[in-house]
Amino acid sequence: MKEKEYEFKGLLVNGFLMLFLLLAVIGLSIYFAVATQATLVIVICSLCIFFAMVFCFGFRMLEPNEGMVMLFFGKYRGTLTKVGFYWVCFLYSSKRVSMRARNLNVEPIKVNDKTGNPIMIGQILVWKLKDTYKAMFEIDSQTMASGGASVSVTVSNRMRAFESFVKVQSDAALREVAGLYSYDDNDDSQSGELTLRSGGEEINVILLQKLNDRLAMSGLEVIEARINYLAYSPEIAAVMLRRQQAAAIIAAREKIVEGAVSMVKMALDRLSEEEIVDLDNDKKASMVSNLLVVLCADDAAQPVVNTGTLYN
Fold first, then answer.
1. For the chain, where are the E strands, in sequence order?
2. Is the pTM of this model over 0.85?
3. Nearest to 218 by CA among 136, 163, 148, 160
4. Which residues contact residue 222 at a Cβ distance below 8 angstroms, ignoring those fewer than 6 apart?
5. Taking the CB of residue 232, how many other CB atoms lie within 10 A of it?
6. Burial code of 174-203, b = ≥16 C-beta within 10 A, e = fewer?
7. Phi, psi of 77 (to 5 degrees)
8. 170: number of CA atoms within 13 Å, CB side?
9. What angle do CA 178, 181, 185 make, to 5 degrees?
10. If you average pLDDT over residues 153-177, what whole number do you get?
């Protein structure tokens, strides 16, 4: 059966009480050794002082959202998470870890979207350590933290190693998600296809799921993941900008024509309903042409006074 994280259940004594007892043992040993001057008593008192000093290696202190992985000659014996000052058997070795939430700003990377367009995409993560056993023993955090050298590993080095692991996996997950969707809907804005640009929260949820799937083996958890940078790659940015501008111009023209047609129709209907003037088909066609030119033109129309008949 695969071992999992569990709470440390070994001997756990209040640190202040144990400190008082050890100081009392040292003080009394010195007193009796000086007072009696007997060789046997001096030897016993020296041994008491020696063991009291050895017992001092058992003191442990934990702050909120910290943990200690307890090992007994290399065997996992649980994780100590109780906040406070304690004494445990000095034969236990411990590895301190932080379980506080941390930010990770992933620099934009170049990837190809679903259609093959190169894009720049970045993300920001909030992550924390969830399972101390997996984090310490399922991935090689010791080697990553020490850089391969046989040196003691501090908490900060160990957490930087975890952060490095998260960064590598986040890059892989980001590339995977970016390859599943297009940057934007190039063909039809009404198609309803999910894109990186319009997906918003849906894309973030998918990215979060992909990240946690990859980090499940490591005991690390991403609390929140958001895309904070999205743009076309510089080599195609200018071309795509022109395409977006063209699409915007076409959409604006469609709106203008739609509005102009509705206004012309309204004008003809009002003239007919209120019997202001009786227009035949030729006059209506001429009126429609003039109104559409005025309403759809980019510049202000210049009126021309017709001094002849309507047909001249």
1. 13-14, 59-62, 66-72, 75-80, 84-87, 92-98, 102-112, 118-129, 220-232
2. no
3. 136
4. 125, 126, 127, 166, 170, 208, 211, 212, 215
5. 20
6. bebbbeebbbbbeeeeeeeeebbbbbeeeb
7. -120, 15
8. 30
9. 130
10. 89
In whole angstroms, what is the distance from residue 295 CA to residue 301 CA? 9
Burial of 170 (0-12, 13-18, 19+ CB in 10 A): buried
Q: What percent of the chain lies above the pLDDT cut of 90?
A: 37
> Residue 232 corresponds to which amino acid?
Y
3-state class (DSSP) for residue 88: coil
Q: How far apart are CA 3 and CA 134, in angstroms?
A: 9
| Integer Cα distance of 71 and 77 in angstroms | 6
CA distance 6 to 70: 11
Farthest CA pair distance, the chain:
141
The pair of structure tokens assigned to 160 is 């930087």
Cα–Cα–Cα angle for 34, 38, 43, rounded to 5 degrees: 85
Tokens 């997996």 map to which residue? 134
Distance separating the N- and C-terminal Cα atoms of the chain:
99
Tokens 């076309």, residue?
232
Instruction: Please give the pLDDT value at position 287.
Output: 76
